[in-house]
Design goal:
The protein is mostly helical. It has seven helices and no strands.
C-alpha cells in the first residue's frame, strides 16, 4: 500500500507556492504533517483502548526451553539450602510437576514432594528449604498460607517452579 500525502495547495495567504520550495523544505513540510498525523493516531488509539484491562506479561511464562532428563543445573549452589532448592527445581524440570499429591502416578512431584525427596531425610534442611521457599512466595503472593496450598493453586507448574528457582537464589544470597 503506497501512502502519499499531498502538500497543501498555495492559497492567496501563502507567501510561496509549492514550486518555489526546495526539496528539503518540501520534505520537512511532509515530515511535519506526518508527525502530526501519527501523534493524532496514537492519541486516538489510546482513547479507543483505554477501557481494555491489561496485565503485565512475565517473560518467564513466555520463554521456555526444551528440557531433557540428562540436563544438569548449570552451576550448583555451594550453600546447603540453596543447593537443596536447586536440586528440587531440577527434579521438577526433569521429572515433572503435579498438583494435589506429593507424587502422582507418573512420578511427577509437587513443590513439597520435590524438596522432601531431595532433602534425603534431613528434616532440618527440609524445613529451612520450605521456610525460604515461603519467603520467596510471600514476596509476590501475600495471601499464601502454605507451600502445598500455593502449589495446588496452579494448573501449570511454571509459576511454582519459577518461585522454587527464585527461592534457591534467595537462599544463596542469604548464605543458607
Amino acid at each position: 500500500m503506497l501512502l502519499t500525502h499531498a502538500l497543501p495547495q498555495p492559497t492567496a495567504t501563502s507567501p510561496v507556492s509549492n514550486s518555489e520550495l526546495s526539496l528539503e523544505a518540501r520534505l520537512a513540510a511532509t515530515d511535519a504533517a506526518m508527525t502530526i498525523r501519527l501523534e493524532e493516531a496514537a492519541v486516538a488509539h489510546e482513547v479507543r483502548t483505554a477501557h481494555i484491562p491489561t496485565d503485565p506479561i512475565d517473560l518467564g511464562d513466555v520463554l521456555t526451553l526444551p528440557l531433557t532428563p540428562a540436563l544438569q543445573p548449570p552451576s550448583p549452589y555451594r550453600t546447603p539450602v540453596a543447593a537443596l532448592l536447586q536440586r528440587a527445581h531440577h527434579r521438577l524440570l526433569t521429572g515433572g510437576w503435579c498438583a494435589g499429591a506429593l507424587v502422582d502416578t507418573e512420578g511427577a512431584r509437587c513443590l513439597y514432594g520435590a524438596i522432601h525427596i531431595e532433602a534425603r531425610g534431613d528434616q532440618s534442611l527440609e524445613s529451612r528449604g520450605l521456610e525460604v521457599l515461603m519467603d520467596a512466595i510471600r514476596r509476590k503472593f501475600t495471601d499464601v498460607d502454605s507451600v502445598p496450598s500455593f502449589n495446588d493453586g496452579f494448573a501449570s507448574g511454571r509459576i511454582p517452579m519459577r518461585m522454587l528457582d527464585q527461592a534457591a537464589g534467595l537462599a544463596n544470597a542469604r548464605g543458607l
